[in-house]
């Protein structure tokens, strides 16, 4: 028998994302499998592709766009065009911390929405014990993306991790495996 994985974070699935379109497509695949109540935390340096991924999520969910980099707003609600849950897109970059996060009343909308939080690591954990965590890194340095190069396609890797009961079933794990494999989901 293979050993039962222990509770908490499960081992991540690593994807190679050669272009911004590949990052968006990953978001589309992920968006298609998300349900109301799901929380996705996006981590990565400036220009890593978090908003690009969130745009794909919006597309996969079928919500009204455009999903943009919120400059002045911290959270934006994108209603569904297909009778599904809305996408709540949060940019926590300017949030002072957990207290300001509380001010957004996200837990009010969490159950009914799919919530995606850029820069959410370290602040959203209190919102839900169940979440997906996507870490975007550039290749090869693994560090923050060079802002000057950000406009051109440069390879990223994404690590897709899942935390909590929601993602612990065999079925949910299989869904995440499929999302992490572009060839299997293509067409
Ligand atoms: N493989 C890639 N994946 C994603 N974006 C890429 C890739 N290659 C190049 N890019 C470019 O990098 C930029 C990523 O911008 P994006 O706004 O998605 O990043 P971000 O992580 O949300 O930034 P911020 O930290 O400012 O919120 C875009 O201009 C996009 O076209
Ligand atoms: Mg962004």
Polypeptide structure, described:
The chain is of the alpha/beta class. The protein has a single domain (18-138, 165-186), classed as Rossmann fold, CATH 3.40.50. Helix content is 27%, strand content 21%. It has six helices and seven strands, in the order E-H-E-H-E-E-H-H-E-E-E-H-H. The chain has helices at residues 20-33, 50-61, 98-103, 106-110, 170-179, 182-185, and strands at residues 13-17, 39-43, 75-78, 87-91, 114-118, 131-138, 156-163. A seven-stranded mixed sheet has the order 1-7-6-2-5-4-3. Strand 3 and strand 4 (87-91) form a beta hairpin. Helix 1 (20-33) crosses helix 2. The longest helix is centred in the N-terminal third of the chain and has 14 residues, at 20-33. Residues 1-8 have low confidence and may be disordered. The structure holds adenosine-5'-triphosphate and magnesium ion. The site of adenosine-5'-triphosphate has 21 residues, from helix 1 and helix 2.
Question: How does the SSE layout of this entry go?
Answer:
Elements: E1 13-17, H1 20-33, E2 39-43, H2 50-61, E3 75-78, E4 87-91, H3 98-103, H4 106-110, E5 114-118, E6 131-138, E7 156-163, H5 170-179, H6 182-185
Parallel strand pairs: 2-5, 2-6, 4-5
Antiparallel strand pairs: 1-7, 3-4, 6-7
Helix pairs in contact: 1-2
């Amino acid at each position: 028998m293979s050993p039962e994985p222990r509770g908490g974070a499960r081992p991540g699935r690593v994807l190679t994302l050669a272009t911004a379109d590949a990052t968006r497509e990953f978001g589309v695949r992920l968006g298609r499998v998300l349900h109301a109540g799901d929380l996705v935390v996006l981590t990565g340096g400036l220009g890593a592709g978090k908003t690009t991924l969130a745009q794909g999520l919006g597309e996969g969910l079928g919500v009204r766009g455009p999903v943009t980099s919120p400059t002045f707003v911290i959270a934006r609600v994108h209603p569904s065009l297909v009778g599904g849950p809305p996408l709540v897109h949060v940019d926590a970059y300017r949030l002072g911390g957990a207290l300001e996060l509380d001010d957004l009343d996200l837990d009010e909308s969490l159950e009914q929405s799919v919530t995606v939080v850029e820069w959410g690591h370290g602040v959203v954990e209190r919102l839900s014990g169940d979440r997906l965590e996507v870490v975007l890194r550039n290749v090869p340095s693994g560090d923050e993306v060079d802002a000057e190069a950000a406009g051109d396609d440069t390879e990223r890797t994404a690590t897709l991790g899942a935390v909590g009961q929601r993602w612990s079933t065999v079925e949910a794990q299989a869904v995440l495996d499929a999302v992490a494999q572009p060839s299997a989901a293509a067409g």
